[in-house]
Amino acid sequence: MKKIFFLIIFLSFSVIGREEGQTEITTEEGIEVFQKEKYYLLKKNVLIESDEFILSADLVKAFFEKDLYDIQKIESEGNVNFTSSKGYKGSGEKLEFSIKNNLMNISGNNALLNMENLIMKSDNYIMIDDSNGKFKLEGNISELTTDNMNIVGSYIDGSYQEISGVNEINNLIVKSDKITEITSDTLKMFSSKAVYSKKDNIIELFDNVKVIRNNEVIIGDYAKINTLDESYKVTSNKSKKVKVLIDSTDE
Amino acid sequence: MNNLLLINKKLILIIFFIISLVVIIFFTLGQNPFNKSSLNITKEEYSFDIKNPNFTINGRDEEISIKAKGASFIGTNEILLEKNVIFKSNTFTLKSPQVYFNQKNQTAYSKKNTTFISKGTTINAKGFEITNNGDNINFKGKTKVVLIK
Question: Which of B20, B120, B141 sits opposite A30 (nearest CB)?
């Protein structure tokens, strides 16, 4: 009986399922092919399934090089959801994906890219270039979450590297019109601009600096934080003064 | 004893599997054999204005040959191609059971199931429209595309 069951399940998948190497696209309201302009429009409830990714959206514009199968770039909009074979998951109002260059732009109010241990959110724009490990987030509120840090700013520019299947941040520049916020296990760091270097194990904070650890608050114009032992040094350029506030109410 | 308890479990499972298999096959093929109407039979007896029409038009970069089992004039410039209509060029083949073709504008459309095949591409749609000398092809309705690199 079990054999019959598995045979039927196997037959079902072999008849219905997509074969390896194939890209399967389904739409509710058809396709418009523009041969001269070398693109086609996929309309309403579009679902694209390939070995490399699965994408669903309301409308998709697929650019090809020579023939229809030769897709180079995808522009999708409306309830876009993307999952790559690497496990990356993206969603937003618009998503552009260059298959040739491994370049992805996600835009919209709730732009999200989840790379498992790197989560990027923005209310405007996320760009990731997986070929050279660069990324950029722009918006009033953009947020990057790693395994041990949470970074909030309006502009986050950085690079990452995959080491043993885990994406690790190499460099980071965070800016904000208001204030950037970096939270680690023991520290809360605020400033107008922050720069992180994995190579030097340093976070530098520039202007309107505030570092909070437990009940200790230090205010200055510049701070240098060692990410290995989380020791830090705060200086002040303008007033030549560093303000230290210690709240002892809990002690 | 309750009669329900007498039902053979194996029998239920076998019936379930058979029903599942039949449903899967129906959905996969997209054809319901019970829906075949007598119209299909009477269509065989249609008389066409032209039998086995076979002509070519100039596409954007290539000639497109058009074949069908029959064609009927339905206007000054429009003909209705019927039965096994095939548009074929060096780069693609398009099949449909019924196609309206405008000789003056060199446009064509169909509201019937359409299959388009080109290098690495198969498209199944509920109809199509070709305009701009073949530059634009619109596949209508629910559409499935299979691409092979």
Answer: B141
A21 touches chain B (CB under 8 A): yes
Reported ipTM: 0.77
Across the interface, whether the CB atoms of B144 and A68 are under 8 A apart is answered no
Q: Is B2 a member of any domain?
A: no
pLDDT tens string A41-78: 999 999 999 998 999 999 999 999 988 899 999 999 99
How far is the CA of B109 from the CAs of A83, B55, B97, B99, B130, in angstroms? 36, 17, 11, 6, 6
- Pick from B60, B136, B143: which is nearest to A30 by CB? B143
Q: DSSP H helical segments within chain B, as ranges?
A: 9-29, 39-43
- Nearest chain A residue to B129 by CA distance is A32
Instruction: Tell me the one-letter amino acid at B106.
Output: Q
> Domains in chain A, ordered, with CATH?
141-251 (2.60.450.10)
Q: Are A214 and A228 in contact (CB under 8 A)?
A: no
Least CA distance to A49: which residue of chain B? Answer: B146
Same domain, B84 and B26: no
Cα gap B73→A201, rounded to integer Å: 80
The Cα of A89 is separated from the nearest Cα of chain B by a number of Å equal to 23
Q: Are B28 and B54 in a shared domain?
A: no
